[in-house]
Every structure is written in C-alpha cells, then in structure tokens.
Amino acid sequence: MSEVQADMEEPQSTGKKGKYRRPKPWDHDGIDHWKIEEFTPDHSSGPFLEESSFVTLFPQYREKYLRQVHSPETKLRLQRNTRELSLKYTLVQVWPTVTKALDAHGISCELNLIEGSMTVKTTRKTFDPFAILKAKELIKLLARSVPVQQATKIMMDDIASDIIKIGNLTRNKERFVKRRQRLIGPNGSTLKAIELLTECYVLVQGNTVSAVGSHKGLKQVRRIVEDCMNNVHPVYNIKILMIKRELSRDDELKSENWDRFLPKFKKKNQKQKKTARKEKKPYTPFPPLPPQSKVDKQLESGEYFLSERGKSKRSVHEKKEAAAQKSARKRQERAKDYIPPPAEKRQKKESVPRDMEDMKNSIRKKVKERAKSSSSSRGANDYLTPKNKAKKKSTNPTE
Predict the structure, then answer these.
(1) φ and ψ at 60, to 5 degrees?
(2) 395 in helix, strand or coil?
(3) Taken in order 216, 217, 221, 222, is the CA torsion positive or negative?
(4) SS3 assignment, position 205
(5) pLDDT for 64-112, tens place per residue?
(6) Which of 126, 247, 269, 296 has the CA that lies 20 to 30 A from 228?
C-alpha cells in the first residue's frame, strides 16, 4: 500500500493539460480497450416496457429454401438390385435453425408463407436491446439468398452485415452485367480471393451484394465492389490487400507508413470512337407514301390498258432499243483504241518587253564592240586582194 500511496502523492505536472490528471490504478497496459464484451442477462435491468417488431418480405423462390434445404454434404450410394445411382441428402430444416438462434437472445420469429413475410419480435425474455436490430439484419440476409449457416453468424457481437446496392451505379444494362461478372471472376475465383483477404462471406445476388463479417472487412468489401462497378478491376484492390497483409505480419514494418510499398495505378483515358450523328429529318405529320406496286407502275406507264398483242410488240421494241444502245456503247469503246493521244503543246518563251532607250544603248554597244574587234584582228594581208577573188570579179559580166 505504501508504494500505491507514494504514486498517488507524486507531484502532478503543472499547466492546463496536467491540471486534472490523476493516476488510475485500475487501468494498465494489459487491458484491451477495443475488446467488445459479451452482453449477458446480468447487464439488463429487466424486461422491456414496449414490444419492438420488424417485418421483411421475401421472394417466392425463397419459400422452398426456407421450408427445408439440402446441406452441401451429399453421399453417393449404388443400389445393388436396381443398379441405379441415387443421391442421399441430409435434410436440414432452415426455420427451426433460425428460431433456435433467436431464442438464445429472447427474440421470437414468425414465417408467413401466405403473405411471404418474416417477422421478428421482442419478448419478456429479451435482455439485449440491440439484439432486435441484429434479428432484423438476419431476416434481411435470408431474403437476399444468404445461407442460414452464414446468416445466423450476424447474432455475434463482433460480426456485422452490409447489403451493397449496385443496380444504380451503371446505366447501361450490358455494362452492368459485365462488371458484375468481373466481380465474381472465372469459376468464382475473384470472389473467393476477396473472401479470404477480407475474412467476410460475400454473395452477389441480382442488384445487390450481401456481405457478412467484421466491420473492417465489410469496409474493404464495399470499397472493392464500388470500385469494380466504377470500372476499376478487383485485381488491383486484391493486390493492395495482399501487400498490406504481408506488411502487418512484419514486426519492424508494422508501425510504419506503408505508402511506399503500395502500388499506385494510373488511370488511362482511352479515346472513344466518335459515332457519326444522323441528321434529323424535318418533322412531318403525314406518314411516308407506300412503295408502288407492279400494277401501279403499269397504270402510270399505260401498259395496263394494252392488249396482249400490244404488250408483246412493246416488249420487242424495248428489247431492240436496249440491244441498239448496247452495240453503240461497245462500238465507242472499240473506237477509243484508235484515237491518237493529244500532242503536247510547246510553251513559248515569254518575251521580256524593253524600253526604247535600253534597246538603243544595247545596239550601240554591240556596234562598238564589233568595230573594235574588226579593227584589231585585221592585218596587212587583209588589205591585199587575193588573185582568185580578182579574177572572179573580172569575169563578172555585170561589172
């Protein structure tokens, strides 16, 4: 006692934070503050003053299951006399199992096959006020096709349930079916992996996903389901859960930040093909005209009123015209081979127009250059007349 008194008499830290702090001898490190203690009849002050009840409807196809169900344990037996293979099932009554699970908490249940409803009520023996809400979830799960072995687990304190609605998350029906099948996986492999990692029972039924398990596992299941319906494959979330599971087992990395170990997936926005928009035709209150029949066409052309002789003459005339047009077309095609290709026309050089002064100056320069060249190239022999040239001049009769 002296040690306890010494601890009590220790001086407290000054300041606002330590003003009202006192030692708590009943609190120590060995106590688990997150542990949920079992609620026993000793915690209750007595029977409830008012009766609480909940009713849930179930579909017609669940009536056969609620009456009796075949357990998964089946045995094969070969009859020696008849040589026929028969199955021996162990019959399990579903509703008596539900009644037995609810009686332990002092809650009564009723199955109405005429109205197709299940009812749960509190009684004088009910000691846990939260048990009626658990019973409500139990009958909801049974109506959503959850097996009775999994549905009765909801009555435990550390087990909860969640019914996720996925029908309104996608508008397109075909896209919804594909994504729901993606959640299940081939032969249920993806759903089985989710159950093993989250430690929850998951059932995909119609437009809902039912899950039974711990609160932490239900949170993970809801995230996976919603991401899957928003076009995120469940494999990505399964991979993250597997990494977290391995990190939680390591004593060194247990209390550290795991962001550096978790994969980061980038979203890829693929360009969608633009569909050509059809132009809207102007609205007309009158419907389109029906297509013309053979008789209508004959009446329009006047062939309907011709005799058989006239019709035959007309058909012969039309055939001759068609043959003549065809022969003329072929004749033109044959004549194309004898037509010469068109001659290529030479392009004339464009004459550049000049001014009169420029032309005069150019002529003067040329004359001067010729004069210079002629005077410089001439020698003494050029001024002498050759003999043959003189003779030719003398022989010319005109001179």
Answers:
(1) -65, -35
(2) helix
(3) negative
(4) strand
(5) 888 864 444 433 333 333 333 333 333 457 899 999 999 999 999 999 9
(6) 247
